[in-house]
Write a structure and sequence with these properties.
The chain has about 200 residues and is an all-alpha fold. It contains 11 helices and no strands.
């Protein structure tokens, strides 16, 4: 193998690596800009940028759809959120992407008391291999909030010890809901107050 050939291979590899680095850097900058537009609720500019040819080529479909879904949620546009959801039904996702998107969607459709779409999220999540902690949490969330099941009360109480603050908030609300189902208003009120207290601590 000639020195010239080796040198050419090295040059080509450096060009590919530098190009890949440039694309990743540009992608990160664009995503950050889109997220900032969402945070500031500048939806007109968000949709203009999201629909541009540059962004469509630069950002993977999953990330585009996740951003679009979050925008619909922030705008409280349920039909638009459903349209984004429906557009992903036949798209292949990794286990992590499935947990991320359908977990986000599950929380939203539970809030909206949309049994059909919440169940669709649950079905997708339940088929994921791995990510057992996230998967179990989301399945428990669905069963308690949509099916009014109460059998996981002790499990949730026991895991409070290892919960971080965000997990504690969710688990306190789940326990509150379980006790509302069981008609124990005193315990339900206690857990709602504990959740509110942790939220205050997080904000401060």
């Amino acid at each position: 193998m000639s020195v010239f050939y080796v040198a050419m291979v090295v040059i080509i590899m450096l060009v590919i690596l530098s190009s890949d680095y440039y694309v990743r850097k540009q992608r990160k900058l664009v995503i950050n800009k889109l997220v900032n537009l969402l945070i500031n609720k500048n939806f007109a500019k968000f949709y203009d940028l999201l629909g541009s040819k540059r962004v469509q080529k630069l950002i993977p479909l999953f990330n585009l759809k996740l951003l679009e879904f979050n925008a619909a949620v922030l705008q409280q546009k349920q039909e638009r959120a459903k349209k984004v959801f429906d557009s992903l039904q036949n798209k292949k996702m990794s286990g992590r992407q499935t947990i991320e998107f359908y977990g986000r969607a599950l929380n939203y459709f539970i809030e909206k008391r949309d049994a059909v779409y919440a169940e669709a999220c649950y079905t997708k999540i339940n088929k994921v291999n791995g990510y057992q902690k996230d998967k179990n949490y989301l399945i428990t969330l669905y069963k308690i909030m949509m099916l009014d099941e109460t059998s996981d009360e002790e499990v949730i109480e026991n895991r409070l010890v290892s919960d971080n603050n965000q997990e504690k908030v969710t688990d306190y609300y789940l326990l509150a809901h379980i006790n509302e189902i069981k008609k124990d208003s005193k315990k339900a009120k206690k857990y709602n107050q504990l959740a509110d207290k942790v939220i205050t601590e997080i904000v401060e």
